């Protein structure tokens, strides 16, 4: 029996927060529904940030409410701080990911707090969840793990320290993000080894950007090292406002194609994902979309590979 | 000491043969010189085919003559048949690669000969080299190894049979090409294992197309399996006239960036390669160019990685 790999669509958060255009709420709902119909069961649907900072995500509560109606969908939101976590809890998300940037310079630029101050805030979010007996999963989303456009190198020891801190502060799981597209296959292997020695099985998922075309190569290395959960964005939209040149996440449809054709099971239809792209084209006509499978089409051997894997 | 990886630029052959525009001979020479100056020491400079079939490469002999003047450059040409090999020998190439398509349908469409008929022709090329005591290296370039847009699946046994045949017919080394962009990381691993059991160390190099974005992922797997020679095209130009949707080769500058940042040594400057792109832009203004590093730039950690690796 083939390994299952969980894919979380993050385009609605990471993608939409980093482009100037505002996607209409109705289009976001169509996207969530189409992604769900294509088989996605994990979607990071929004971020609970003040609307004056990110008007693109001002409809966070309404979007969560909509997503919660889809049976079997695990609804995740990003929460930059305690206030955001309170709002996310109120909205009823299943999981929240609180970002902690390991690069001090990136952390200060992004949330005006040093990494260890964010770990303290993380602890307050944990207390808030526990006080409400909410049962919400709390993910430590470590960002700029593989390098930083502001700081340059990010030492592995710094990453491990933040992992230790966030676990002590109550993280259920840890996700590692290559926010700025610095990661190389060699680094991914070393980083997973180092973080696993601290976090064990709580190191759960990877979030790669495809800035320099290595997103899939990095994914293959992470798979070899036991990772079975990955973030991705439909059509690769996304980036980071504080990381110039950091283009979008790994393209969801390309990632699913690669995994399925390697014999992994995702439960997701590539054809279904390709169909979703028209929602982006219509709602964000100015936005560049990415992806190889969209251009080349599925190979004539694709269904055979899928049969082999099942 | 870090492993050395040999990169062969094939854009002048695989790239230029599959686009309608004809690059002026003077521009080809500028490209060869700029690639050489960037550190490339292996270039597949042309193909010896009848000019009426490929007017883009009608200057084959002149291009080889120019390339042979660059000290330390290994000059390779593709030869589709004995006649082409005779012309390549006359021109004085160091290496010739004779393609043998493993897919019968692709072979018939491409050269109007079945794979085993091409193996026989390959034997005649070997005899021709030996009769002249030329010392030219003869490479069996197996194409459509991972799938075929016409035939679909290409069984591993068929690949191994063609490898056996070409070795018996006198191949010095074997190269495996994903002509149509079907290869997945899983397949690459299986294929290298199977072919190596037949060819041993004579399995030397891989030629990946990036049709579905997996060129670098496939390269990483090939590296893990001991391959240290790869073909690539500047700016990813290339394809296959008999494989619709088969976009270009792996992008040379992206490949060199990945290898260097993983700690391998290529002897090639990414900056030098990026500078080469302007030759293509000027000589082929209509042609789409590809590549991630060109768009994103080198990360601020790049020189550090290089230092670590040296």
TrEMBL record, chains A, B:
InterPro entries: AIPM/Hcit_synth_CS, Aldolase_TIM, HMGL, PYR_CT
Protein name as it appears in the record: 3-hydroxy-3-methylglutaryl-CoA lyase
Any single biological process term in GO: L-leucine catabolic process
Pfam family, one: HMGL-like
Lineage of origin: Bacteria, Pseudomonadati, Pseudomonadota, Betaproteobacteria, Burkholderiales
Record has Transferase as a keyword: yes
CDD domains, per the entry: DRE_TIM_HMGL
GO MF annotations, alphabetized: acyltransferase activity, acyl groups converted into alkyl on transfer; hydroxymethylglutaryl-CoA lyase activity; metal ion binding
Keywords: Lyase, Metal-binding, Transferase
Family per similarity comment: Belongs to the alpha-IPM synthase/homocitrate synthase family.
Pyruvate carboxyltransferase domain span: 5-274
């Amino acid at each position: 029996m083939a390994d299952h790999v969980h894919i979380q669509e993050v385009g609605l958060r990471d993608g939409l927060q980093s482009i100037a255009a505002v996607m209409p709420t109705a289009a976001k709902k169509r996207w969530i529904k189409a992604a769900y119909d294509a088989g996605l069961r994990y979607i990071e649907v929004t971020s609970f940030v003040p609307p004056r900072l990110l008007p693109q995500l001002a409809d966070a509560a309404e979007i969560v409410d909509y997503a919660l109606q889809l049976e079997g969908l695990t609804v995740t939101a990003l929460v930059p701080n305690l206030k955001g976590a309170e709002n996310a809890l109120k909205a009823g998300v299943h999981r929240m990911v609180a970002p902690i940037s390991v690069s001090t310079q990136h952390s200060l630029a992004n949330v005006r707090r040093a990494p260890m101050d964010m770990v303290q805030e993380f602890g307050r979010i944990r207390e808030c969840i526990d006080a409400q007996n909410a049962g919400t999963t709390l993910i430590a989303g470590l960002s700029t793990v593989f390098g930083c456009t502001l700081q340059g190198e990010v030492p592995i020891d710094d990453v491990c320290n933040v992992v230790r801190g966030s676990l002590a502060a109550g993280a259920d799981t840890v996700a590692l993000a290559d926010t700025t597209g610095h990661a190389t296959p060699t680094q991914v292997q070393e980083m997973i080894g180092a973080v696993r020695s601290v976090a064990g099985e709580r190191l759960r998922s990877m979030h790669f950007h495809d800035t320099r075309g290595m997103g899939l190569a990095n994914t293959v290395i992470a798979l070899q090292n036991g990772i079975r959960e990955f973030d991705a964005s439909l059509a690769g939209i996304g980036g980071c406002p504080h990381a110039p040149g950091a283009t979008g996440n790994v393209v969801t449809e390309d990632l699913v194609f690669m995994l399925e054709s390697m014999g992994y099971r995702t439960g997701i239809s590539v054809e279904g994902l390709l169909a979703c792209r028209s929602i982006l084209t219509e709602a964000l006509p100015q936005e560049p979309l990415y992806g190889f499978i969209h251009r080349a089409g599925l190979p004539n051997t694709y269904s055979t590979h899928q049969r082999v894997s099942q």
